[in-house]
């Protein structure tokens, strides 16, 4: 299954992607990791990426797409993938669509993880990463394992946790603002394609994992445009109806989505008015480097 998880910083996207990758046996493809690996390898794309990063520029979308293309050609991505950290805006989403169409590997699902803004801020402040293996933990919601399981796969010693500099409160509101402005439009983009699913990503980590599994387990009805292209369906309209009924969502799915009035709300924007620093401070706040 080819999946994108969409969610604001602090929505638990990374943790849920890790879990999903383990359960489904498909790779979690992080564009940040791809960039770092390419730079370390010194490949052509890697050298171009390094030049951009050294000059303080954002890495070109075309370059990131090149890395994704290379990564998707690897064996372990045949059964699907979870794309992490990309796309972050509409232009990237369109480029990705084009690439996946060329590869004949269209997305199966985009899952939106919904979390209220106050909870996002609380979660981000608890976030810690391992300096050695890069795994992300959360002191509040996903603490690192203790005892024998507490071993870092890279070093064999306990994980060395640190707080990313852009996880402090001042930069968090800026990152949430960027998410609202740049990434939230992707929700409508993927909804229009008929592959968007939304889950309530608050509460217990395991409960969210279950809601995510339920959302992915259910078949979405195929988009009408594709059904119209099927010659058999065109010749026999009654078969279209039967097929649509087969693909109709089971009733249980409804509970994994918040009601319409909740989905339309943008709690972050409301909270921003209170939380955002004055204009000048906001401008100087360092943006999170794109992964
Ligand atoms: Zn580690």
Feature tags:
alpha/beta, 5-stranded parallel sheet, 3-stranded antiparallel sheet, 15 helices, about 50% helix, binds zinc ion
What gross morphology would you assign?
Answer: globular
Biggest β-sheet description:
5 strands, parallel
Low-confidence stretches: 218-224, 226-246, 249-277, 281-286
Structure class: alpha/beta
What is the residue-mean pLDDT, rounded to a whole number? 79
Q: Can you list the strand order of the major beta sheet?
A: 2-3-1-4-8
C-alpha Rg (nearest Å): 20 Å
Bound molecules: zinc ion
N-to-C span: 23 Å
Annotation field: number of helices: 15
H/E series: EHEHHHEHEHEEEHHEHHHHHHH
What portion of the residues fall into strands of 2 or more residues?
5-15%
Determine the fraction of residues in helical runs and give it as a percent range: 40-55%
Number of strands: 8
Give me a quick take on this structure.
Helix content is 50%, strand content 11%.
Set down the secondary structure blueprint:
Blueprint: E1 2-6, H1 13-24, E2 28-30, H2 31-41, H3 44-54, H4 61-72, E3 81-84, H5 90-102, E4 109-114, H6 117-125, E5 127-130, E6 136-138, E7 161-162, H7 169-183, H8 185-192, E8 196-200, H9 205-217, H10 224-229, H11 231-235, H12 237-247, H13 260-264, H14 267-275, H15 279-284
Parallel strand pairs: 1-3, 1-4, 2-3, 4-8
Antiparallel strand pairs: 5-6, 5-7
Helix pairs in contact: 2-3, 2-4, 4-5, 6-7, 7-14
Structural account:
The chain has 291 residues and is α/β, with parallel strands linked by helices. The protein is built from 15 helices and eight strands. It has helices spanning 13-24, 31-41, 44-54, 61-72, 90-102, 117-125, 169-183, 185-192, 205-217, 224-229, 231-235, 237-247, 260-264, 267-275, 279-284; strands at 2-6, 28-30, 81-84, 109-114, 127-130, 136-138, 161-162, 196-200. Strands 2-3-1-4-8 form a five-stranded parallel beta sheet, sandwiched between helices. Strands 6-5-7 form a three-stranded antiparallel beta sheet. Helix 2 packs across helix 3, helix 2 crosses helix 4 and helix 4 runs parallel beside helix 5. It is globular and about 45 Å long. Zinc ion (ZN) binds at residues 130, 132-133, 135, 152, 154, 159.
């Amino acid at each position: 299954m080819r999946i994108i998880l969409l969610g604001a910083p602090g929505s638990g996207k990374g943790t849920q992607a890790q879990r999903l990758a383990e359960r489904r046996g498909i790779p979690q493809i992080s564009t940040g990791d791809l960039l770092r690996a390419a730079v370390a390898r010194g490949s052509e794309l890697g050298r171009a990426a390094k030049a951009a990063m050294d000059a303080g520029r954002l890495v070109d979308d075309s370059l990131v797409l090149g890395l994704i293309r290379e990564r998707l050609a690897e064996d372990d991505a045949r059964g699907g993938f979870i794309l992490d950290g990309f796309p972050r805006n509409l232009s990237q989403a369109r480029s990705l669509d084009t690439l996946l169409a060329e590869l004949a590997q269209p997305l199966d699902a985009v899952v939106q993880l919904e979390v209220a803004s106050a909870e996002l801020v609380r979660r981000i402040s608890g976030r810690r990463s391992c300096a050695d293996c890069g795994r992300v933990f959360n002191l509040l919601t996903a603490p690192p394992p203790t005892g024998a399981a507490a071993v870092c796969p890279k070093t064999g010693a306990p994980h060395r946790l640190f707080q990313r500099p852009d996880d402090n409160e001042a930069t968090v509101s800026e990152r949430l603002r960027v998410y609202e402005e740049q990434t939230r439009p992707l929700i409508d983009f993927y909804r229009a394609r008929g592959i968007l699913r939304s889950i309530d990503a608050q509460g217990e980590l395991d409960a969210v994992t279950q809601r995510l599994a339920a959302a992915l387990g259910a078949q979405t009805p195929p988009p009408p445009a594709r059904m119209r292209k099927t010659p058999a369906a065109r010749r026999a309209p009654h078969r279209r109806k039967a097929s649509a009924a087969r693909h109709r969502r089971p009733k249980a799915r409804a509970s994994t989505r918040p009601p319409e009035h909740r989905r339309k709300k943008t709690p972050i924007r409301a909270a921003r008015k209170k939380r955002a620093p004055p204009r000048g401070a906001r401008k100087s706040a360092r943006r999170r480097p794109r992964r």
